[in-house]
Design goal:
Shape: globular
Number of strands: 4
CATH superfamily: Beta Polymerase, domain 2
CATH topology: Beta Polymerase, domain 2
Helix content: 40-55%
Order of helices and strands: HEHEHEHHEHH
CATH architecture: 2-Layer Sandwich
Number of helices: 7
Strand content: 15-25%
Strand order of the largest sheet: 3-2-1-4
CATH class: Alpha Beta
Number of domains: 1
Structural class: alpha+beta
Distance between the termini: 52 Å
Length: about 140
């Protein structure tokens, strides 16, 4: 992904965050792969519970008000339940999950990497001051 694509995607995500409060935003297609032309469109998957009970086409048309660029945009909008189902099926969503770039993940229970590592270490009784040998055998009876 080039610098311009990254900046535009980030700004778009921030606008969406204030509006529809998405759980996840994925950039996919040529812009994510980095083989885009200058005029290539932006392909996004946007996951939000605000899409519940909203017709699929109305979801997409509602996204355009957050897009303030001259580039074309192709948003695919799903609830989290729809997204979880679609990403398991053969099709564009599964391909986007495999090859796309997660621009944002605003899910409340999404922990950052350091927090996850800290929790895993804690579950094994490892602290940052223990030595490698002690880490391996700390919880074992010898």
């Amino acid at each position: 992904m080039d610098k311009e694509t990254a900046e535009i995607s980030k700004n778009f995500a921030e606008k969406l965050k204030k509006g529809i409060k998405p759980e996840k935003i994925l950039l996919f297609g040529s812009r994510a792969r980095g083989d885009n032309f200058k005029t290539s469109d932006f392909d996004f998957i946007i996951v939000s519970e605000k899409f519940k009970d909203v017709h699929f086409l109305d979801r997409m048309s509602g996204i355009y008000k957050y897009w303030d660029n001259d580039y074309l945009i192709e948003p695919l909008c799903y609830t989290s339940e729809e997204f979880e189902m679609k990403k398991k099926q053969i099709g564009i969503v599964k391909k986007a999950v495999e090859e796309g770039i997660e621009i944002c993940n605003f899910k409340p229970n999404n922990l950052n990497r350091k927090t996850k590592i800290r929790e895993i270490k804690k579950s094994f009784g490892i602290d940052k001051n223990s030595k490698p040998f002690e880490r391996e055998y700390k919880n074992r009876d010898l």
